[in-house]
DNA sequence: GTTTTAACACCTAGGTGTTAAGCT
DNA sequence: AGCTTAACACCTAGGTGTTAAAAC
């Protein structure tokens, strides 16, 4: 186990999209046709579309870095998705986790994107869940609405692949037997990032400042610095 | 119908209590022993304790007023409760509504506090619900986490009694037949208030400024004003 | 006259990268 | 040297009563 681990808080809110931006099919990650386990109809037709894909691509091209701190830090860009094809009468559970990866493509499991049962729900990292905690686990008498997101522990200087899981809450008594077919995992490779305690690539810093509203206070400084180098 | 209606947004967060303040039995509203309909065991043992009761009492003594605006306004003090006696394995739905009342005690229905089936769930005002919307109604594909609270329409210059409802989500197919026994209503009379567009009682204004952190900016002004009158 | 609106200054609350100091 | 921490100034975001103008 690595020497240190840092909490990482994904930004709150998943599907806040104001019904804008069709974004085109390029942003969606379709299900694998060759999935070994036949999925339940409740999840088989579900598809997920990544929001802000253009911004994710821009970061990914430079090698996305995410600051991690002891107290927890939001991720930027935000991991937000639109969901399609869910049964409005069914109950679902939405999960997210982060799988450690290295940069050698050969070590990336084949068929990893989108769903491959063997490397799905249980992983080396803690899973984050939002949406009704009382569905995930029975509601305690108090704290019915904690924070929308929990904290994730990541190791600095390591690279991670976020994953998104849609789990159908099977009402059948023996639902454990159908665990494999009742969920679907979605992976967007452009959301991969390196966890750091301080930015390593100055161009990442500049892109963060340019695109994150909360970092607007540094826009003057970085443009001045760029000018000084240019001429 | 009255000429105007204003959205009213209850402050977010219901049971955020940090496990402090036992508050004593005086703050809780026990169930009526003479309830005509025998309640389901899932709700019969549920009890609710009002948070910040001392502050509510202080406001109530002066005649609580709540500002309502077109865009919606939080209430202060916040309506927060602690819940006890719920079955951790059961699903519940929590609702809140506001019943119009006038000041004549004779017109207040007997046995209104706590639960009286006749005047419970359906009321003249819209109901607010927080907690998982996908339990209240099936989750739409988008907007899975909207705001924690919805908007309430209240009429200015009218008096209201907030109510809190705990509803057991009965898994039985014919659950409609048990609607009366599957919920329990709690009423705290000290949370009654008058909806206004501008404060009528200056002592209410002073108490709001003194107790609401967001109004701290006016504390110097009001103390100066008080000094000017005193001598 | 009374009631309502909208702009405003002043707060709380919390998300940024920066920076200097600390750690290994 | 490199990595980590904590305090900091600077933002966004939004909850207050105030005030003067508008509406009725």
UniProtKB/TrEMBL annotation, chains A, B:
Q: Where is the composition biased (Basic and acidic residues)?
A: 220-230
Which residues are in the T-box domain? Answer: 50-220
Q: Does the record bear Transcription in its keywords?
A: yes
Question: What GO molecular-function term can you cite, just one?
Answer: DNA-binding transcription factor activity, RNA polymerase II-specific
Name the UniProt key words of this record, in alphabetical order: Developmental protein, DNA-binding, Nucleus, Transcription, Transcription regulation
Its cellular-component GO annotations read: chromatin; nucleus
Q: Major location, coarse class?
A: nucleus
Where does the record say this protein resides? Nucleus
UniProt entry tagged with the keyword Transcription regulation:
yes
Q: Which domain of life is it from?
A: Eukaryota
List, in alphabetical order, the GO biological process terms annotated in this UniProt record.
cell fate specification; positive regulation of DNA-templated transcription
Q: What is this protein called?
A: T-box transcription factor 1
Species of origin:
Cebus imitator (Panamanian white-faced capuchin)
Whole-protein residues included: 64 to 294 of 380
């Amino acid at each position: 186990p690595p020497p240190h681990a840092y909490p990482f808080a994904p930004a709150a809110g998943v599907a806040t999209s104001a019904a804008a931006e069709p974004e085109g099919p390029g942003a969606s990650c379709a299900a694998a046709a060759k999935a070994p386990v036949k999925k339940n109809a409740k999840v088989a037709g579900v598809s997920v579309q990544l929001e802000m894909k253009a911004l994710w691509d821009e970061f990914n091209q430079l090698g996305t870095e995410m600051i991690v701190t002891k107290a927890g830090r939001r991720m930027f860009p935000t991991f937000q998705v639109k969901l399609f094809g869910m049964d409005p009468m069914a109950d679902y559970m939405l999960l997210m986790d982060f799988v450690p990866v290295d940069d050698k493509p050969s070590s990336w499991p084949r068929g990893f994107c989108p769903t491959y049962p063997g490397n799905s729900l249980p992983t080396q990292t803690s899973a984050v869940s939002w949406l009704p905690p009382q569905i995930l686990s029975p509601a305690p008498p108090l704290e019915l609405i904690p924070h929308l997101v929990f904290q994730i522990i990541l190791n600095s200087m390591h690279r991670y692949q976020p994953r998104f899981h849609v789990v159908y809450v099977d009402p059948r008594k023996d639902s454990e037997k159908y665990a494999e077919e009742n969920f679907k995992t979605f992976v967007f490779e452009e959301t991969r990032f390196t966890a750091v305690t301080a930015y390593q690539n100055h161009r990442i810093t500049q892109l963060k400042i340019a695109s994150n509203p909360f970092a607007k206070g540094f826009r003057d400084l970085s443009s001045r610095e760029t000018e000084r180098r240019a001429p």
